[in-house]
Amino acid sequence: MTATIPKVRRLLLGAAPALVTLAFLAGRAPAGDFTAATLNIWHDQGDWPARRAVILDTLRVLSPDVLFLQEVLEKEGLPNQAQQLADSLGWGFVFASVDPPGAAKRYGNAILTRHRIVATHETMLLPLDDYRVAAHARLEAGGRTVDAYVTHLHHTAEGAHMRAEQVRGLIAFVDSTRGGGDLVLGGDFNAAVDRPELAPLLARYIDCYAALHPDADGETATTLNPGMGHAPARIDHLFVEPGGPRPVAARIFLEAPSPSGVWAADHFGVWARLR
Predict the structure, then answer these.
(1) What is the mean pLDDT of residues 13-35?
(2) How far is CA 52 from CA 35, 47, 57, 96, 206, in A?
(3) 15: which residues sit within 8 A by CB, 6+ positions away?
(4) How much is the pTM?
(5) Which residues lie across from 70 on neighbouring strands?
(6) Does 6 sit behind a cis peptide bond, omega within 30 degrees of 0 on the bond before it?
(7) Angstrom distance (rounded) from CA 94 to CA 196
(8) Does the structure show a pLDDT above 50 at 4?
(9) Is residue 179 within 8 Å of residue 214, measured between CB atoms?
(10) Cα(144)–Cα(222) distance, rounded to whole angstroms?
(11) Domains of the chain, start order
């Protein structure tokens, strides 16, 4: 522990208070804990190189075992954003898109990890014209096997029926690819966890953030960035199975601009420690 303190202090010199808090949490990990995070990166809107630097600074402090990304883009002049982050961190990654490999533009979700990836799967979610996908990566992490899943559901307020159909497809996908180890599911669900369309997920899984902050609501724990004009709502979630590793810490991150005034994205991230 003492050997890491100077490094953390160097990383946090001039950092925002939220980053200091995350470093404190990340630096207290007992052996055997597993950390997960999810973030909608807002594709290439704004100044992506500046935003990428802010995201990387935070990820280097957090160093999650698995990271779920949504709105990942690759196109001419823009290498795959998930790969950019993974390469900078020295991690592996999985990218899933409805756009075929080699297409001029590909948009989708990604899983990044510090651990060995031993299996991957992906699926499109109905309706097909909504262009939504889910991805799976099986990880070997410190002697355990973890099935990690990411998704990004339909976004409009009137599209609850589409999200409900996508939740059914997501659950079927998990059931068809699930191994015998632990499970963590993350992403942008575009709905609060108390919405009816997410009820099948809550019937099976634990919402990591709510398990530790039961009184939090969308105003106090928004994952949409009000600084970019969004109405506050907690729509980005991390789920685990009952009986598996339990959440012992959870918080929202990247919820403030960098010291130079750069917002990482139009969403905030969600991070959880599992034990």
Answers:
(1) 63
(2) 21, 9, 9, 20, 30
(3) 23, 57, 259
(4) 0.92
(5) 40
(6) no
(7) 30
(8) no
(9) no
(10) 32
(11) 2-25+35-274 (3.60.10.10)
